[in-house]
Specification:
Strand order of the largest sheet: 1-5-6-11-10-9-7-8
Shape: globular
Distance between the termini: 48 Å
């Protein structure tokens, strides 16, 4: 029986042209984040199921690729439930592994610790265009910094990186989970209903404010509560980030801590005053972010010109404590690496400053001293910084050159057995 040529469903092969772009982007990302003091780390792709199922990954916990026990631990005859067969799984994000890593090595790491982690993650999701079951994530996190300096540095590092990759006119949408809760309390929603209210609010960009109103009423909330809630969002429409935040803070009064509004204002103003890329800060009280581990500031990269977001993050001060037994301030930002690559490829992005690509086409009869002479010439050009491909000449030389041109080769040198040809 013939072996299967195609990748497993939801996975993909990466061709050289895309791989070159990925390598270029990884280089820019690592260099830029390095300039901001972030240190590269690596964690295993396999994590304990106890960690992956710790109710910190939201809906992703339903998408875990589980790994069967091995050797003597795997006993099919006595197994009665799934947990008897599995004890680990492929990571669905990089945050849970990072927190475990930090808890395990805290005494060996500087404080605060600025981490950069890039690596593949796996989710048993339904595959579609631009969404695969294996994909690269790119995270930066600051652990041990309780002040707004963490948020400011994360946003500046990420936006500087996106700017260097050629992106501009995007937005950083920013909010705070404490503002979300204060708005719900102000409107009279009971605390136990907050999560369901926020899930509905998160649909605002898809169903609009009228759709959110209709859903909340169907959930059993009074029209008075819903109107009071949605009037808060209407109050900030068309206003700048700092002005909109001030309006919300004034309306919420004692429901919102003064420090929260001041802190968010400080982040917005500091980033606006020092940014190195072309983008806009936007206070967005509809921003929810689905991960249950967020405790404070949340943010997202919005690229409406490309039809969606391209990354996000926030503060998760309680997560490390589940490993260490004591809370540690933590904040992170993840850029959508795969989406960035897809956009750049669709836009026909050309890697700047690439070496001149030269192809040496050698007639098949050439060998011995003549072959060594040609290779020696190629070596000299490589030493000058050129990218030189040495290959045998095909019968259909025109088609061969056409294929090489598509790979970016600009210069061709033909070598024949008879040097007079």
């Amino acid at each position: 029986m013939a072996l299967i040529k195609k990748p497993v469903t939801g996975m993909k092969d990466i061709l050289p042209s895309e791989m070159q772009l990925r390598d270029y982007c990884i280089g820019i990302i690592k260099k830029t984040y390095g300039e901001f003091g972030f240190n590269s780390i690596e964690t295993p792709c396999v994590e304990s199921l106890a960690n992956l199922n710790s109710k910190q990954g939201g809906e992703n916990e339903k998408l875990i690729f589980k790994v069967m026990k091995r050797g003597e631990k795997l006993n099919l005859e006595t197994a009665k439930e799934e947990n008897d067969l599995t004890d680990s799984g492929l990571r669905y994000d990089l945050t849970v592994p990072l927190v475990r890593f930090y808890a395990n090595h805290a005494n060996e790491l500087p404080a605060p610790f600025k981490a950069l982690q890039m690596g593949n993650v796996w989710r048993a999701d339904r595959p579609q265009k631009g969404r695969y079951r294996q994909f690269m994530q790119c995270d930066i996190d600051i652990l041990g910094e309780p002040s707004n300096l963490a948020e400011i540095e994360l946003i500046l590092a990420t936006t500087t990186t996106l700017g260097r990759l050629g992106f501009k006119d995007f937005k950083i949408r920013i909010n705070d989970r404490q503002i979300l809760k204060a708005m719900a309390a102000y409107s009279g929603f009971p605390e136990e209903s907050y999560d369901s209210v926020f899930i509905t609010l998160d649909k605002m960009d898809k169903i609009g404010i009228d759709g959110v109103s209709e859903e909340l009423v169907k959930m059993g909330f009074s029209q008075e509560q819903v109107d009071k809630y949605l009037d808060l969002f209407k109050a900030v429409e068309g206003k700048g980030a700092v002005e909109g935040l001030s309006v919300i803070a004034d309306k919420l009064g004692d429901f919102l801590s003064k420090e929260v509004a001041e802190g968010l204002t400080e982040i917005i103003s500091s980033v606006d005053g020092t940014k190195a890329a072309q983008f806009e800060m936007e206070f967005d009280p509809t921003l929810v972010r689905g991960m249950s581990y967020y405790t404070g500031t949340i943010f997202e990269v919005a690229m409406p010109q490309y039809g969606g977001s391209c990354g996000g993050g926030g503060r998760y001060d309680k997560m490390v404590g589940k490993f260490l037994g004591q809370d540690t301030p933590a904040c992170g930002f993840s850029i959508g690496f795969e989406r960035i690559i897809m956009i750049m490829m669709d836009e026909g992005f050309k890697i700047p400053g690439e070496s001149t690509k030269v192809a040496y086409l050698i007639e098949k009869g050439i060998k011995g001293d003549r072959l060594a002479q040609i290779i020696g010439e190629a070596q000299k050009e490589r030493a000058e910084g050129k990218q030189v491909l040495v290959v045998r000449m095909n019968k259909n030389k025109k088609f061969q050159k056409q294929q090489l041109s598509e790979q970016g080769y600009e210069e061709f040198k033909d070598f024949y057995e008879n040097s007079l040809q």
